[in-house]
Structure formats: C-alpha cells, structure tokens
Design a protein that fits this description.
Elements: H1 5-18, H2 22-43, H3 51-64, H4 75-94, H5 104-117, H6 119-130, H7 134-145, H8 150-157, H9 161-181
Length: 183
C-alpha cells in the first residue's frame, strides 16, 4: 500500500509525538481534525450539528488509545477505524431515525456521492474478504462492517460470541498480512 505525502507527513508527526514531542502531537492532531471533519461531513449531511461532537469524541479516543497504534500499519487506517466506531455509536444512539425522513433529492445526491467515492473501496474490500474462509468472512461482515456486537452477531449467525471473536481476530490478521504484502 502506498501512502500519499499527507499520510507520510502525518505518520512522521505521529511517530515524533509518540516519542514525546508535544509540538508534533499538536500538529498531527491539527491535520487529523481537518480530515475527520471531511469524513464526518460526508456521512452526516443530514446531521451537520453532530460533526464537531464526533470530531472531538474521535480525538479523545485517539488520545486514550494512542498506545494501540501499530506503526507498521498506515496511521490513517487506524484513525478512520476509530472514527468509524464513533459514527456507528452515534447511529446506534440515534437509531438512524433521521435518515428515514431525508427528502428524495438528498438521498439521490448522497447515493451519487457514495457511488463515486465509496463503492470502489467496498468492491476492493469484498474481493479481499473473498480470500478468507467463510467463517472469518461472515464474522468480519457482521461485527466489523455491519457493526453488530458479538452477542447480536451470535444471535444472527447461530455461532457463539467467543467463536465469532476468534474468527474476526484471525480474519483481520490475514487481511493485515495481505495488506503488508501489497506494499
């Protein structure tokens, strides 16, 4: 996987911040804030008041979980994984009821934007998932893509929650190995 210049700059700042450089940490967070705002604005067009709250929640989570970052992996992936969890939490809290009342025009625009932006990534993810055994693929789809809890995924699949967690762990480990091979 090839990182662009912005990702490389951010990764360098984050590495310096990890070593205790406060100036680098503030600079890295400044770059992350800009990217998070864009990420959340695209996904929360119907709830623009939530964008800043989610940016702040994500920054707090990044700070608390900064020790979990693996420098062997792209920093942006780690940041947006955490952001995705915060977004999922918001949708669960709100029940996505607001999305049921979007005007048709807003839905059409949103789908058009997703078609150009996110569908290629979903296609690529789908191709990667197809390389995994069925149990791992199902567990990852339920828990990581659909955002179900282990209990919810167990109820839906008929597999124990602990078995699903193991399958997710093994599948993600294989996907990470594939990603490292592509570099």
């Amino acid at each position: 996987m090839i990182e662009n210049n912005a990702d490389a700059e951010l990764a360098a700042l984050w590495a310096r911040a990890h070593k205790g450089d406060d100036v680098a940490y503030r600079a890295a967070l400044g770059l992350i804030v800009v990217r998070l705002r864009g990420y959340f604005r695209r996904r929360l067009a119907a709830m623009p008041d939530e964008v800043e709250d989610l940016v702040q929640e994500t920054l707090l989570a990044l700070h608390v979980k900064r020790g979990t970052y693996d420098p062997a992996l792209p920093l942006a992936n780690w940041v947006f994984a955490i952001a995705g969890h915060k977004l999922t939490d918001l949708w669960r809290r709100r029940g996505r009821r607001e999305a049921l009342h979007d005007p048709y025009e807003d839905v059409a625009e949103s789908l058009a934007a997703e078609a150009t932006e996110e569908f290629p990534a979903r296609r690529d993810l789908g191709m990667l998932l197809e390389t995994l055994p069925a149990a791992q693929r199902t567990a990852i789809r339920l828990m990581k893509i659909e955002g179900l809890t282990a209990t919810e995924a167990a109820q839906r699949s008929g597999v124990s929650a602990s078995a699903l967690k193991v399958q997710v762990h093994r599948g993600l480990k294989k996907l990470a190995a594939l990603a490292r091979e592509d570099r």
